[in-house]
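[audit] Reproducing an earlier prediction to check determinism. Same input, same settings, fresh worker. If the tokens differ from the archived copy the diff job will pick it up downstream; this log only records the rerun itself.
[audit] input (421 residues):
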Amino acid sequence: MKRVTIRGILAALLIGAAAIAIAKPAPGKEPAPNPNDACLACHGDASAKSEAGKSIAVDAAKFGGSVHGSMQLPCTGCHADVSADKFPHGKVKAVDCSTCHEKAVKEYATSIHGKARAEGRNVAATCTDCHGSHDIKRSADATSRTNHANIESTCATCHGNDATITKGNIPGGNVAGKYHDSIHGVIVGKKGTNSGAAPTCTNCHGAHDMRPKSDPESRVSRKNIPDTCGGCHMGVKEIWKNSQHGKLRQNLVLVAPGCSDCHSAHAIQAHDKPQWQVDVIKECGNCHGAYLSTYRDTFHGQVTDLGFARVATCASCHGAHEMLPKDNPLSKVSSANRLKTCQACHPKANANFVLYEPHANKHKKEGGVVLYYTALFMQLLLAGVFAFFGLHTVLWLYRSLQVVSERRAARRAAQQDGEKH
């Protein structure tokens, strides 16, 4: 700091003048100078650097427009180890935000970021990474890093940067990119009247107390996901809670599917998109593999496997959030409701129409003897047809090659006979 000795002397003079003015206030005269003027005498220079060559410049205008600057807080309020009587000062310690923000700092210490820092992983975010340093603004300010509309870009500084993700071994990969293209990200990105209603990173993960999903106390733990999503989707949560999946979850059977199992965590899409309606069938198959296999054997299953959503999917018959076993009278596939369910797509369906078994297994006799032997006959017939025509093609090729060979031999013999005569 020897390079700023003259500035240090000037700063000391300014502080002395400020102290005299504060000690002897005169009515009707101008207020005492801002005590931060002394600091800015050195740090207000955009070219100011420490002995290590690191910039120590502070933009006075940005600081003045910050939450701390607007409250006219002195620099020494945060940099408490700096003495106003000693200029130039030495190396300053890291700011302790808990002096004013005790609750937030305590929550941060228990978060995944705080624990990572405590373990020496310095790539983890700190207060200044999210809030800034000398330009901190209230979250209600549209230009604040922590404003609802700007949270995505703030978090994406780490969670959307491939180099940082690799260096910090951050789980989930580039989740910022997935969120950006999700229905939530699209709504927030429009920054319209409804953008504040769509959740952003902190709505699901928390602000200062972000915890990994493996932590039972985390908002995104498997146990707590329904409550977190239900904070916005109250009606859907109530329907799901009374479903077979919801009842299992309430009995702590956590393998039962919840919101993120079907909708994903960050790449959530609008439920009325045909591509999503087709893709979510695979998610059902993660738990109900046997039923997915038999569904794929049906006309509905084969059409959706080609990417078309104009035929019945799992949710069309079983419901989306209100899924119940077929022996439950309220189930869409119960004997009392099945006809009505089918009539949603087939208005002319009658009682006989719904007698078929939608998940009949043609590979087992238990799925129906007639179906089993019919399927077996068709497989044998298909194999026989291909075998017959395959053998026919091979023999035909052999005969064709033989004929070609005989013709070539005949032409050569005729040519040789002509040459003799």
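[audit] rerun output stored. Observation attached for the diff report: Residues 369-420 form the longest helix (52 residues).
[audit] end
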